[in-house]
Design brief:
235 residues, alpha/beta, Rossmann fold, 2 domains, six-stranded parallel sheet, 6 strands, 51% helix, elongated
């Protein structure tokens, strides 16, 4: 059975928009404590998120505690370390602003509608199961998803093959019958193609393509009809 796999964050769910909104709220609340442009702060936060996510997967720390520790790092300097209360308050500030900014990537919902009419859909995503289920519900795309695989339940993040293999198993498909759409070259494209899954790289921010032979590059999920035709022609 041919199937289509989607990443979630920054492919269907506009994680960058939410994250920047949350970080901007913390920067404003703690003026002068977090230096740099929002792009620079986001890049630092993304690195912290990836590092602490591995610790969460290993059972070394809870997701809430890991968020507090990320903001302890962001708020601290050599001269001024963040207190427990500051780190916790900053984490709560970020989370409230992040949740209030939920939105889909432009074209995502319409694209899911088009693809779902032709074949089953799986979502393969890093992060925690409860968090990703909440995002899917908030976007109202539950009915389009035939299988959801989240790194927490597998115990390893993408690009590990086991994440993709579990999704294919649940969908009753094989790598040669699937196509993967994602924004992360390392997690989505390299992970999928290493298993023999054809890939489409969503490059919304005009990053240089590491290897044009590995994936078909698109810059947007719109126009939806053209992107849907491309996906379905590959699957």
């Amino acid at each position: 059975m041919r199937v289509v796999l989607f990443d979630l964050d920054d492919t269907l769910f506009d994680h960058q928009h939410c994250s920047r909104t949350g970080l901007a709220a913390v920067q404003e609340a703690y003026a002068g404590r977090i230096q740099g442009s929002i792009e620079e702060v986001e890049a630092t936060y993304r690195e912290l998120l990836e590092a602490w996510h591995l610790k969460v997967l290993q059972g070394l720390i809870s997701t809430d505690a890991s968020r507090i520790e990320r903001f302890r790092v962001l708020l601290s300097s050599e001269q001024n370390g963040a207190t427990d209360d500051e780190a916790q308050a900053a984490a709560s500030c970020y989370r409230a602003a992040f949740d209030a900014a939920y939105q889909p990537v432009p074209g995502a919902i319409e694209l899911l509608q088009r693809v779902k009419a032709e074949c089953p859909i799986g979502i393969v995503t890093n992060h925690l199961l409860a968090e990703q289920v909440q995002k899917i519900a908030a976007l109202g795309i539950d009915s389009f998803v035939d299988a959801l695989v989240v790194s927490e339940e597998v115990g390893v993040p993408k690009p590990d093959a086991r994440v993709f293999e579990l999704a294919l198993s649940r969908l009753g498909s094989t790598p040669d019958q699937a196509v993967m759409i994602g924004d992360s070259w390392a997690s989505d494209i390299l992970g999928a193609t290493a298993l023999g899954i054809r890939a489409i790289w969503l490059n919304r921010y005009d990053r240089p393509c590491p290897d044009a032979t590995l994936a078909t590059e698109i810059r947007s999920l719109e126009p939806v009809d053209a992107i849907a035709d491309l996906i379905l022609s590959m699957s």
